[in-house]
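Quick one: structure for this chain?
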Amino acid sequence: MATIKATIFFDKRYWVGTFERTDKEGYAVARHIFGGEPSDPEVYEFVLTHYLELKFGEPKRFTLEIKRMNPKRVQREVRREMERIKETSKPSTFAQDYTEVSSRIGFLAGLKAAANRLKKRGMYCLILPSFF
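Got it. Here's what it folds into:
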C-alpha cells in the first residue's frame, strides 16, 4: 500500500507542490510548479488526472531503528553532559561581555573628560580604574 503526501508552498515567485510517495519500493519525491496559488479542488483534480505524469526520483530504502535505553542511564548521561557544559562554558555570552566592556570604556571616557575639565579649571583629581 502506497501513501502519498502533498505539500504546497510559496517559493519566491511561484507556488510549488512536492509529492512524497512511500510504498514497498521505498521513499520518493516529485515536484510540480503550479504558478498561481492552487485551490483545494485544483490540487485534488491535479492528483487525479496528472499523478501518473509526475517524475518521481529513485526510491530510497530506509529503515527506522528505535534504540531503547534504560531511563536511569539516560538521566545520568544528561546530568554528566550538563556538568561538562557548565565547566567548559562561561556563564555569559560574547555579546554580553562586549556590551559590558564597551559601557565601562564609555564610563571611563566620561571620567577622563570630567578630569580634563577640572584640570582646565586648575583642579586635579585622581581616577582609579578599579573596575577593570
